[in-house]
Amino acid sequence: MPLNITEWIVRIPVLLFAITIHEYGHGKAALSLGDPTAKEQGRLTLNPLSHLDPLGAICLFLFNFGWAKPVPVDPRYFQNPRRDIVLMSMSGPVANLAAALVAGIFVRYFLLPFEIYQKVLVYLVLMNVGLGLFNLIPIPPLDGSHILENILPNSISSVYRRFRRYGAFFLIAVVLLDNFAHTGILNRVLIYPMLALSHLFAGDHLFRLLHLL
Known about the structure:
mainly alpha
């Protein structure tokens, strides 16, 4: 069913919010681990325009999976680079999942009978869970690739690193195949975990509201 104007009005701010807290989480974690690069370059901000990656935003908006413009990180500031890169990489998805959990609590216990309010909560849950889980996939340039690269043994990690230059093309191909050729790749990998986690956060109200959207 095509989106009506109300859903456009709701989804765009929710999208910008999800992207912003994701990248702010990375920047804040990097700063706490000793790297001021994001702050010095003006990326430690809650201004969504600073974090917007046009292609990633379009994918997130259309397909509920996407990415933002990565915050700059200089691992030379980290005391333990491999550990700290993992922590910094996890911080973005964790920020999204935390936001989804808060929205889910509102769906469970503070649901008001206003259509826009309900849409905002549903999209806050779904978009943040979708963005968080999608970025944990270990395909470059997603956060999961940085996590995997730095927990693998050095010998295997160096081989995996060679794949990085092709990761974005592979990722886009998967998204396009799934949505236009109906290969079901993302359904198998992400849709079911996304719905399960969203239901865990928001409870049975979530599916009832989805039918009303």
